[in-house]
Fold this sequence. Notes:
Structural class of chain B: alpha/beta
Strand order of the largest sheet of chain B: 6-1-8-7-9
Largest sheet of chain A: 3 strands, antiparallel
CATH topology of the largest domain in chain B: Alpha-Beta Plaits
Radius of gyration of chain B: 19 Å
Strand content of chain B: 15-25%
Low-confidence stretches of chain A: none
Helix content of chain A: 55-70%
Strand order of the largest sheet of chain A: 1-2-3
Structural class of chain A: mainly alpha
Order of helices and strands of chain A: HHHHHHEEEHHHHHHHEEHHH
Distance between the termini of chain B: 52 Å
Order of helices and strands of chain B: EHEEHHEEHHEHEEEH
Number of helices of chain B: 7
Oligomer: heterodimer
CATH architecture of the largest domain in chain B: 2-Layer Sandwich
Distance between the termini of chain A: 57 Å
Radius of gyration of chain A: 27 Å
Amino acid sequence: MGKEVFRAGVWGVAVTTILALLIVIGSRNLAHFDAALVGYTFATLFAVFGITYRYAMWLQRPPTALYWRRGWQVFFRRGFLLRNLGAWVGRLTGEFALNRFIFRRDRARWGAHILIMWGCLIAAAITFPLVFGWIHFETLPEDHTWYRAYLFGFPGFAFPIDSLFAFLVFHGLVWASFLVTAGVMLAMRRRMRDHGAAALQQFGEDLLPLILLFAVSVTGLMLSASYTWMKGYAYDFLAILHAATVILTLLWLPFGKFFHIFQRPAQLGVSFYKDAGERLEQARCRRCNDPFASQMHIDDLMEVERKLGFQYEIDDRAALGADHYQRICPRCRRALLGLAQGSAWTNEER
Amino acid sequence: MGVPEKLEFFVDPNRCIGCQACVQACSECDTHRGYPMIHLEYVDRAASVQTLPVICMHCDQPTCAEVCPADAIKRTEDGVVQSARKPRCIACNNCVLACPFGVPRMQSDLMMMMKCDMCYDRTSIGKKPMCATVCPSQALFYGTREEIELLRPRSRPIDRFQFGRQTITTRVKMMVPRTGRVEYLDVASAMHSEPIGNRLAATDDSEGLDDLMFAAYEEGDAQR
């Protein structure tokens, strides 16, 4: 077993154990834990292990490790912390909450993504605390028409059972299902009509996640329909079917497309790295002398390439004017390709 | 369905006439509609008319994919290095700066890298890439090994490129003289090479330029 695998395994076990302990503590020694939801709990624990393991493996790749380190360094750099915090709030709102970068890429894609994203976020915020026994509701002893919410066993706010607030909260998963279903429809439509998407998509990577989300949403809605309008018709079967779809989705989280949920925040670190790069010295191309990137980025990239086993070092530094191919800008690299091919022909003619 | 192994991409920059047809056609590709991914590069515009089309060479060990911190760039089994996967690309610019051929483009407003994927929507169903379809001088040629040998009896394709100590092999081939001993193109060593037809660089005044233009005109007139 390699060092990286061992380290990732330890992280996986540690985070999973912490969550298991939090479930026990948060549900007051499982007093508020619903045994009927044990399948969901174990699927979540497996997903947490898988996600942590993969995340730890990913963070150990040379380029990711370097960005991770540099991202935090530039964020906490003395004199820039306040400015960075302001930018962080702006980017979290604009790029993450509103998905502005996806809007700029493609409106249809944005519509699908923001519906799915918010549907899943709402569903996760409701489901996980309930499954773990972190939140439960009790009727007030003095008035049975009122509920009180308990968080980690501590009493919270109370509200009338027949209020609009209660209706909205207790149907939270229904609203989430509406959002996800609409988003999945839009995404599927794009995947069926767009030639570019059709050429590149893979079943496991692109279609299976949509199918799973659709299955979770529809079986969840069927449960609501069963107890609301059909006097609980086929409720037990539907409950098992819904559990199966949710557990499958949880087990699939560490693999395939869903993992981008956990990778995507790296975009924030990159944005701070770019901000810092703009303020620092710029690297100039050894051929055309134009600035083309921050010197920090070029130095970091050379280190990453060395760690990955690439050898772009140039031995004949005196003759060629550069000790590393990384010191030549992309435009000049393209020109050099043409010059090298042209030389092959002119040398031949001589 | 992948790109058939027997169909290969052959690039011969020597034949490029700089017409930009490839650039226009490239932006018609369904996988990156509206954005041309090909580079039509002027080697030294002030001194020479030499141009070359630069497409992704689809490296066997793609540096762009290796340096990507987000695992966004994948090489499919048919040897095509795909453009960054949209959900994963974090627009870090590593691939743009690391590609030895200078191919990927960063679309900063979209927070996404885009690059030539050999028109995967077309080549994966047996069609030619857009650029090769329209190139009038066949500087970009997509076909079988037998076809290119018939068309270019004086040339042969190579797939090895040297950048300092690093050797890169590619799926896309570049044409070199058949009779020469060239086994690979040493790209870094071309740092001080002059562009082809670099006659204007020798002139340092407009009189010299006029002479050259007049000579070219006379030559053309004599041929007529």
